[in-house]
Amino acid sequence: MNINEYSKALLNELKDIDREEAENAVNYYTELLQESDDPEAEMKRLGSPKDLASKIRSENGCTLRNEFTKTAGDTASSGSSAGRVIALILTFPFWLTVYILIITLWIIVGAVYFSVVLSVPACLLAFAVNIFGKLSISLEALFLGIFLAGLSVLLFRPFCAMCKGIWILFKGFSCFLFGIRSERNRLTERKPVSKIALLSGTAAAILGLVFFGVIWTRNEKNYDNIIYADYTKEYVQEVDDSFTSLEVYANIGDVKIVKLNEGEPRIECRYIKEEELTIEEGSELKVVYNDEIDNNYVNFNLHSFRKDNHTQINIYLPDTDFERIKTDLSLGDILISGIDSDSFEIYCDCGDSTIENISAKKLQVQNNLGDIDMKEFISDDTSINDDCGDISLSSGKLSGNTVINCSLGDIDINASELENVEVTDDCGDISADDCTVTGGGKFTDDLGDIELGFKGNNYSIITYIDMGDSEINGKKTYSDGSGNVKIEANCSCGDITINYGE
Question: Residue 500: which of 463, 447, 448, 465 has the closest Cα?
Fold first, then answer.
């Protein structure tokens, strides 16, 4: 009798038990025979299919019932009783939390394992794309992929075991909770580990890790020559000082605009492609940098975190009053310091904007993703918007109208003088400390706390709150003061705390 015949006969002998249990048992013994050096001797040791079937039934408690079958005698103690139903309702928060924790554990285990697995094709894609452009980087990605592939193989059985354990925990808790008796036990014997999978996984992991480490170390030493081979590390161009306006457009890199301390007005760049940089002079100085992505290179490497080597555009301006300063940056940080201009228009898609020691008649700042930090500035008409990031203002003198909007992040205003101010935050806290408002102020927060501190007593304060507490000068109240400056605070979910006085 060969292995197939033996397996079919064993399955036939187990036809009176649960089909899934029978198939599990047959699969186990089939693999055992296939991996045996002498299958015939192993079959003699196991006995006839009939004897082995009897052994499986006796050792594993297999019966004719389904997994969750209940006997008539169990009915009285099952979850259908009125007492159990009431207990389930009363303990709803507890057992729901347990289910959530079990499912969360399942998701975490799956996320960790599949993050390793899915990283393999990502590395292979980086290898394929970079092979004709950056060979050393492509080899780095290749051996990293080999290491992760080997690790995926080695982690497969532990992953399956953990999933099985979580399922048993889930099922056991459900049986306990709803009074269901499980008459069937799993097989206690484990399937043998595949030697081929174990050896291939170990070899791939060790080989990939060793070669990846060697190549990564070599690439780290020659980082500039590998990554920035097509870039100019230092570029300087002096410009005429007759311009009254400045426009800067860049799709990548940090932009710094500062007042000139010495030398001639100039533009200093680091790590740029000269052919992608355009400088137009005249009454308006226009700087455009558009670094086109190399189709033969994907920046998929472990060296990109290095902060010392990245595109920078530094513009040094003369000490004069400008008519207009505009920046439009796609990816990178913006710093503007010591500049006076009638108009500032600052746009940044992804990066932080830092503005300090400036004076403007009109100031407009727009960030899509990143923080806005402003200090020691003067503006007659101000608009500040941030979709995702914190807004921080300190030592500002804001006359006229000031509008501050933030979709996700905190708004913090310190030691500033404001005339008419309107602050809106969809999700985050609003705080103002040591500030003076002379015209009026409105603060609105959908989700977060509002904490305001004003100097002076000439205020009339009213608060509106849906969920939370309202406190003015230490008192639980929704209105206070009879001054000429109206302060209104609206909060949908959160606390409002306002203090004012000398």
Answer: 463
The answer to whether the beta carbons of residues 492 and 424 sit under 8 Å apart is no
**Spatial contact of 454 and 481, defined as CB atoms under 8 Å apart:** no
Indicate the angle between helix axes 19-34 and 3-13, nearest 10 degrees: 160
Global pTM value: 0.65
Helix (H, G, I), strand (E, B) or coil at 479: strand
Type of residue numbered 77: S
Minimal CA–CA distance to 157: which of 130, 194, 106? 194
* Cβ(391)–Cβ(404) below 8 Å: yes
- Rounded Cα distance between 94 and 82, Å, is 19
List the Cα angle 77/81/82 in 5-degree steps.
145
Q: Which residues of 179-218 are buried (b: 16+ CB within 10 A; e: fewer)?
A: bbeebbeeeeeeeeeeeeeeeebeebbeebbebbeebbee
Indicate the residue type of 476: K
**First CA to last CA distance, the chain:** 100
Residue 130 DSSP label: H
Residues 396-430: tens digit of each pLDDT: 999 999 999 999 999 999 999 999 999 999 999 99
Residues forming a β-bridge with 288: 249, 278
| Strands 334-337 vs 284-289: parallel, antiparallel or unpaired | unpaired
Structure tokens at 380: 């007659």
**Can you tell me whether residue 44 is helix, strand or coil?**
helix
